[in-house]
Amino acid sequence: MPHIALPAGFPGVRSLFMYSPVTAKPLNDLVQTLLHDPNTSTLTPGERELIATYTSSLNECKYCANTHGAIAKYQLGGDADVVKAVMVDPAAAEITPKLKALMNIAAKVQQSGRNVNSRDIAAAREEGATDNEIHDAVLIAATFCMFNRYVDGLATWAPDDPAVYDAIGKQRASEGYLTQPFKVAQTQQ
User: Fold this and answer.
1) Number of Cβ within a 10 Å radius of residue 38
2) Domain 44-175: which CATH class?
3) Which of 110, 141, 137, 140 minimizes the C-alpha distance to 124?
4) Alpha-carbon distance 65 to 71, whole Å?
5) How many CB atoms lie within 10 A of CB 141?
6) Tens-digit pLDDT profile for residues 96-140
7) How many CB atoms lie within 10 A of CB 143?
8) What separation in angstroms does the CA of 146 have from each of 91, 134, 139, 149, 187?
9) Would the pTM of this model clear 0.85, i.e. be above it?
10) What is the distance between the alpha carbons of residues 104 and 107, in angstroms, rounded to a whole number?
11) Rounded to the nearest 10 degrees, what angle do helices 131-153 and 97-111 cross at?
């Protein structure tokens, strides 16, 4: 049960955005830029979604990990296995060495930004990461720590049905973050 009165049928951050449209706009704009827009990063939208998924899974944010995992799956051509592998252990997942190094940085940011050190940055650079990609990985991880705490701090509804996340993932991968969310049937709550 959410800690505040939120609109029924909208899970996770979407209920918070419906509750507070004034804060929803800049937050939606931020996530659109960080994760979806094709010309804002040399990391693919799928790679950026994987960083958000991994950070959210480390924070044990069920809604965000499942939602961004589903979006990543669609951004990566339907590859749910790589998403699951990244959530368990990015070092063993079938992703590029560069993305593994960026995931390491994201994991350190999730604990504390001060945990990132010059060795982590050098390792990412050795794998071909640019300063912009390192910047993006840190910003995505930091942003998702905030989103995860926002979603869980107000005890938003996180559905149990994987089909709900799949539908959200398909919509967001296709449309981005600036379109209206669809309402989930009350029976899902």
Assistant:
1) 7
2) mainly alpha
3) 137
4) 10
5) 27
6) 999 999 999 999 999 999 999 999 999 999 999 999 999 999 999
7) 19
8) 24, 19, 11, 5, 29
9) yes
10) 5
11) 50
